[in-house]
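Today's session is about reading a structure prediction critically. Students often jump straight to the picture, but the first step is always the sequence itself: look for stretches that repeat, for charged clusters, for runs of hydrophobic residues. Only then move on to the predicted structure, which in these notes is written as discrete structure tokens rather than atom positions. Here is the chain we will use throughout the hour.
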Amino acid sequence: MCVCLRPQNCKSWEECAGNPTGTGKDAYTSPGSDWVGGLTLPNASNCTVPPPPPLNKNPCIRFGHTIPVEHHVDVTITQDSDHTVFHTWSNYKFGDFSDWVNVFKPGTGTITVWENTGGTRGAVLYQKKGIPLTPGPLVVVIKVAASQVSNATGYWPPALPDSIETIAASYVESSASSKIRLFNLSPVSTSNYKQICC
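Below is the predicted structure for this chain, in token form.
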């Protein structure tokens, strides 16, 4: 089974169903119609495999917006020890995940989240200093804070410390085969886990 990415220039999965190739922000699997959201993609077996993150001594970061709201964001991570090292992800909406970015050094960083309305950067929503920039693959997401899970009106803005999550590779290197780590960032109870994950 390969994992394929929705082309960034497609506005919806329906638009991409006839052309599931390229690089982008959301993933589905092949062969067949086993897409994460359940949409049938007849050409999924023709998809291209995304490149793996470079696994070396430096952080390789992928950003994701996992808060189920209509709001878009711009996000910048800046290396704390050298403010000339940074990367910005612009106009990300719920469900968007970036490609891998490999410009940082191990250490800590500052993440700044801005509102983005109609493609224009707005006010700063939240800034968190000292996020870990660990070597190897690192997924950084904005998510619903734990204290707001049962309060849908509290999902936005992401303004609490645990609204930012850093997820580093944590598997034990046991073979040359691929590794996968499954994590649940949905603000639903654990009793609903199978509905959103499996």
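Discussion point for the tutorial: The longest helix spans residues 193-197.
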